[in-house]
Q: What sequence folds into this?
């Protein structure tokens, strides 16, 4: 405590109260879930290095400044942290009351994407160009609002003690709430995000205690939907090609299979400890497209090897493990559903993203939470961390 | 804030949350497992694939080493051409993709910018010629005919021409010093094949698509040494092929020079004399066939007797090896290999085989002594020898009475050898050989190295053939079906022969052994085999592997790897027999069948003892083969001309002229050391300086013609005086002076061989 004393002596008295309050027993800082926070922070910083490694030579992307993406990724992380603090400060319960506004706003934004204001990147029409080189991907925020909205609908009557489980009517309402933005996103078409949303809905329904019929029904409907989408030709050629390349990786290595093939070579060549940060030849030679965003895991795989790639999976595991605990330990269903939704989101998105670089999942354009470059994704996942913290902070201490 | 009433966690939700947790963890576990599989289990394979992905090789060719004669005169070297090339990698780094530099370059080279840019663009389906179809990482040649001034302009202003190089590049050249073409010995190069390219791809000396590989002769035998090591630079490239770094660079190592024992001047003399002898033979009348001699091919070998080193080796017909340089045209190729070509690519000194005739007789002489017959005899040299009604005549049916084996060699008495061979054949059991048959006549031939390669350092040497019992058996087995089908009792001559062969072709008949004893019948030898044998008789009995390569000298002259003479055995004869045989062979040159080419026409036998043996081999359906085998204490010269006439008649003058040139002997028998090309074999090696240049003496325009002139003693008076100190020309000498006109007249005279 000498440090604190010296602060006192040098005249920082007024601060003292704040510091001690922050670390006092039962204080906010003490009740925060530090493993989640630290793991998320570690992933973001690791991501900064990997994004930098992937982009420092890509002059056509970084506009001549090798640190362009590094600075922006750090900035995004910073904004993400602020959003997290804001979320904790507001609290998930307050946000519950704001669900109609948030929902309306995100639906408006994704509708905006469909207007000429939206722009197409990699075949998906899911961005809104903002001035200053920034762009917004509203589907990321939709994931949060679906979780919050469904949780609100499903939990209200249960938390009020009216019922033990959400009734069918509520479930229908909740599904309807999720379906609207999902349909719009599907029109973009941003198939990856739709897949994540389906899994989120599934996770939310599971955690809500809705009857098994709904859960299995949804799984069945999802499967039917997938078949229908395939049969009806809703998919673009490039999407079909991606699935074909997944089914047969050696197919057309210069074309469709190129991504997966090069990604796997990059990761495979990493070995146990990798070629060293900034020394990966696949990365330096820019053999893997979209390496700072969707394929960022290949940088870790090549330059940091099994150790680095394993660390990323481990850090994600820490976040998911703690989030599951939060879901189980919170006393109100609303918090449980939100936490479970976030778990479903992070888990599936991470699995799909890393899985496609490892060649066990088809290629879709999904970022790796915290690690991939991209503001919207970064903000959304940090808001989610804020929600988890809020649920954790606001549950009564077990002691 | 926790004022919402406890609802109590329902077990269903709790269970489902656990399910979610387990599901999530198993997903992460799957990822971890897959990561382990890719990186640890399959990591090596992927690492290899990755390195193939981003490493590009650029190969710099090594300059091929020269082939030098014994004094350093280049027989094969490289012509330097100034090649201006552009590096695409460097050009693409410039803002305008190098357009400005190429335009400037076009100005210097006197080309249009369009021409230059056309040459550096890469070929693809839509790009018409001109375009570059090689590796984009290889410097692309823009011209190979730059003048030194242009090259200097480019090199002096290197900063104005980034990515452009003006460097001398080597192209093979066979300069034929003093008209010595040496074609079959040198061999030739031809472009590397796809297969070879593929095979050498991962070695430390890969081929370039433009590489040339030695295909025959010395170029092939010493290809590895001459080729050197190509330099390899490995660049790391990105996904678009742009160079992002240099991985490693091994500089090219120029090929070593091959110093041969060939003397360009002697080679020229040998080639000229062989050709001249063949030309003259074609003017001579063949009484047997009633037409002029065809003299379709011939060969001559000049060998150092004490080491087996080849001083000259000529084969006729010949060709210009420069035809192969820069790729042979289809027309030229047909000319060299077509049916009408008479196969000039063959080196007949090592690939031409024919019956040796009487020059073979040294073998049965040794065989007889080994079988227990006395060298001194005497043996009856009758005019003919008959076996069961079949009469084997001596040449021109001449008899010499009882003589020694030595005298039989001298006068080339066939009947002496018929008788001895027949006796031995009978002793061995005749057509039904005993188990412990001595087979001395055949065994000795094998011990002389016949029927096997001499081991000369030239590719595709043929073995010749000794028709011993084993060979007869094998040959019969291979051919009996054809013989039995064609043969007819009482049919035409050929049918009758086939019929007999079918019945008993596997048996050694008396006639076979008799024919064999004088180097006829199925016996085949190569000139190089005979040179090796006569060299061994000269040097006291050692059979040396003939060698053309004498030393391999690195491009900077620093390391010299000498190729030491190697022996593959000794003649199976005692010192006394050898000495007696040596005497007899000297007798051939002084009193015997070759005297009219040597002793009778002013050969200084007392100063340079000459030994010789002539041979005239009969070939079924063809004119006789001329053979002439000779040796002094330092050299062996063996010449043969197919369908050329008698040994001394057709080949004699040429061999004499070669000796005249070696020792500087004039037509009148005086020795003029100044004219001697190589009175003793060249011992020292030429010097290769550290900068790669080679000190070599000048070779006259045509040593053969210069020799002819000097031999006729048209030299300056003081030279004549000098020559006079060696041997004073006498009136008699002048009388017997060998003139070409007279030689020809004498050549038509039938003599014993």
A:
């Amino acid at each position: 405590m000498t440090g604190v004393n010296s602060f006192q002596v040098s005249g920082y008295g007024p601060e003292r109260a704040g510091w001690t309050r922050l670390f006092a027993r039962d204080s906010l800082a003490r009740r925060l879930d530090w493993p989640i926070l630290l793991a998320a922070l570690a992933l973001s910083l690791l991501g900064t290095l990997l994004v930098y490694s992937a982009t420092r030579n890509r002059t056509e992307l970084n506009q001549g400044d090798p640190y362009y993406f590094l600075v922006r990724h750090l900035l995004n992380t910073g904004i993400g942290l602020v959003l997290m603090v804001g979320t904790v400060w507001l609290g998930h319960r307050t946000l519950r009351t704001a669900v109609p506004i948030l929902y309306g706003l995100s639906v408006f934004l994704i509708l905006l994407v469909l207007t000429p204001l939206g722009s197409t990147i990699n075949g998906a029409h899911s961005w809104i160009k903002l001035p200053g080189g920034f762009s917004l991907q509203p589907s990321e925020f939709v994931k949060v609002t679906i979780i919050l909205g469904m949780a609100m609908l499903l939990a209200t009557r249960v938390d009020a003690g009216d019922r033990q489980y959400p009734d069918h009517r509520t479930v229908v309402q909740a599904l309807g709430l999720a379906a609207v933005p999902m349909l719009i996103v599907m029109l973009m078409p941003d198939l990856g995000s739709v897949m994540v949303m389906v899994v989120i809905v599934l996770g939310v329904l599971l955690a809500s205690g809705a009857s098994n019929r709904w859960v299995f029904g949804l799984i069945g409907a999802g499967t039917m939907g997938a078949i229908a989408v395939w049969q009806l030709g809703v998919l673009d050629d490039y999407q079909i090609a991606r699935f074909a390349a997944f089914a047969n990786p050696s197919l057309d290595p210069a074309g469709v299979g190129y991504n997966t093939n090069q990604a796997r070579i990059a990761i495979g060549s990493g070995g146990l400890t990798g070629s060293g940060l900034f020394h990966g030849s696949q990365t330096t030679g820019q053999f893997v497209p979209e390496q700072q965003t969707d394929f960022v895991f290949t940088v870790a795989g090549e330059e940091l090897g099994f150790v680095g790639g394993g660390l990323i999976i481990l850090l994600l595991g820490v976040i998911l493990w703690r989030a599951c605990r939060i879901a189980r330990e919170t006393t109100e269903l609303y918090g449980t559903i939100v936490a479970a939704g976030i778990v479903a989101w992070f888990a599936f998105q991470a699995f799909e993203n890393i899985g496609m670089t490892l060649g066990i999942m088809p290629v879709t354009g999904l970022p790796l939470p915290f690690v991939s470059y991209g503001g919207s994704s970064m903000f959304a996942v940090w808001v989610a961390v804020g929600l988890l913290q809020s649920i954790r902070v606001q549950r009564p201490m077990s002691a | 804030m926790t004022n919402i009433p406890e609802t109590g966690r329902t077990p269903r939700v709790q269970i489902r949350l656990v399910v979610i947790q387990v599901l999530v963890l198993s997903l992460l576990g799957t990822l971890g497992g897959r990561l382990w599989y890719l990186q640890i289990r399959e990591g090596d394979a992927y690492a290899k694939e990755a390195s193939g992905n981003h490493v590009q090789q650029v190969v710099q060719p090594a300059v091929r080493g020269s082939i030098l004669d014994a004094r350093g005169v280049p027989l094969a070297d490289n012509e330097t051409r100034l090649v201006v090339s552009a590096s695409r990698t460097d050009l693409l780094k410039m803002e305008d993709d190098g357009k400005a530099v190429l335009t400037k370059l076009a100005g210097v080279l006197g080309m249009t910018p369009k021409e230059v840019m056309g040459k550096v663009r890469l070929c693809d389906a839509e790009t018409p010629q001109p375009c570059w179809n090689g590796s984009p990482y290889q410097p692309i040649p823009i011209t190979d005919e730059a003048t030194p001034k242009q090259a200097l302009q480019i090199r002096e202003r290197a900063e104005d021409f980034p990515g452009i190089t003006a460097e001398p590049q080597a192209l093979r050249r066979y300069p034929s010093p003093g008209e010595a073409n040496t074609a079959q010995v040198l061999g030739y190069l031809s472009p590397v094949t796809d297969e070879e390219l593929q095979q050498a791809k991962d070695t430390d000396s890969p081929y370039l698509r433009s590489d040339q590989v030695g295909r025959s002769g010395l170029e092939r035998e010493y290809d590895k040494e001459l080729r050197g090591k190509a330099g390899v630079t490995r660049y790391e490239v990105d996904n678009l092929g742009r160079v992002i770094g240099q991985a490693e660079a091994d500089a090219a190592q120029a090929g070593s020079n091959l110093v041969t024992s060939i003397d360009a001047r002697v080679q020229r003399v040998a080639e000229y004399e062989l050709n001249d002898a063949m030309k003259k033979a074609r003017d001579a009348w063949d009484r047997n066939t009633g037409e002029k001699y065809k003299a379709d091919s011939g060969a001559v070998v000049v060998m150092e007797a004490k080491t087996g080193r080849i001083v000259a080796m000529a084969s006729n017909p010949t060709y210009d090896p420069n035809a192969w340089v820069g790729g042979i045209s289809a027309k030229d190729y047909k000319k060299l290999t077509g049916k009408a070509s008479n196969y000039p690519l063959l080196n007949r000194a090592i690939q031409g085989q024919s019956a040796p005739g009487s020059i073979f007789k040294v073998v049965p002489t040794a065989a007889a002594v080994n079988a227990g017959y006395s060298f001194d005899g005497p043996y009856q040299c009758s005019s003919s020898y008959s076996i069961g009604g079949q009469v084997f005549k001596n040449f021109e049916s001449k008899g010499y009475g009882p003589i020694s084996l030595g005298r039989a060699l001298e006068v080339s008495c066939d009947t002496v050898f018929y008788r001895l061979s027949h006796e031995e054949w009978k002793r061995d059991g005749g057509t039904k050989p005993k188990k412990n048959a001595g087979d001395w006549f055949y065994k000795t031939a094998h011990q002389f190295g016949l029927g096997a390669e001499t081991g000369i350092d030239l590719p595709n040497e043929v073995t010749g053939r000794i028709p011993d019992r084993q060979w007869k058996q094998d040959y019969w087995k291979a051919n009996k079906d054809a013989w039995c089908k064609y043969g007819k009792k009482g049919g035409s001559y050929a049918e009758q022969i086939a019929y007999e062969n079918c019945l008993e072709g596997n048996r050694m008949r008396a006639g076979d052994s008799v024919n064999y004893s004088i180097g006829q019948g199925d016996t085949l030898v190569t000139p190089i085999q005979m040179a090796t044998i006569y060299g061994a008789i000269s040097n006291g009995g050692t059979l040396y592997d003939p060698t053309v390569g004498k030393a391999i000298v690195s491009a900077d002259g620093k390391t010299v790897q000498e190729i030491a003479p190697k022996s593959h055995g000794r003649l199976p004869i005692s010192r006394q027999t050898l000495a007696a045989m040596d005497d007899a062979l000297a007798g051939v040159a002084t009193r015997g069948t070759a005297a009219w080419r040597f002793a009778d026409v002013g050969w200084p036998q007392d100063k340079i003892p000459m030994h010789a043996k002539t041979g005239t081999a009969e070939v079924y359906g063809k004119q006789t083969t001329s053979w002439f085998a000779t040796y002094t204490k330092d050299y062996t010269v063996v010449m043969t001309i197919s369908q050329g006439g008698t040994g001394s008649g057709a080949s004699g003058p040429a061999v004499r002229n070669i000796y005249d040139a070696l020792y500087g002997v004039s037509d009148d028998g005086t020795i003029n050391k100044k004219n001697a090309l190589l009175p003793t074999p060249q011992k020292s090696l030429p010097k290769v300086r550290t900068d790669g240049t080679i000190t070599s003496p000048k070779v006259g325009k045509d040593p053969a013609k210069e020799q002819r002139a000097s031999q006729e003693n048209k030299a300056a008076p003081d030279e004549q005086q000098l020559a006079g100190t060696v041997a004073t020309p006498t009136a008699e000498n002048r009388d017997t002076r060998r003139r070409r006109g007279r030689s020809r007249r004498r050549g038509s005279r039938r003599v014993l061989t």
Chain B touches chain A through 48 residues (CB under 8 Å). Residues 1-7, 714-753 of chain B have pLDDT under 50 and may be disordered. Residues 425 and 513 of chain B are 7 Å apart (CA to CA).
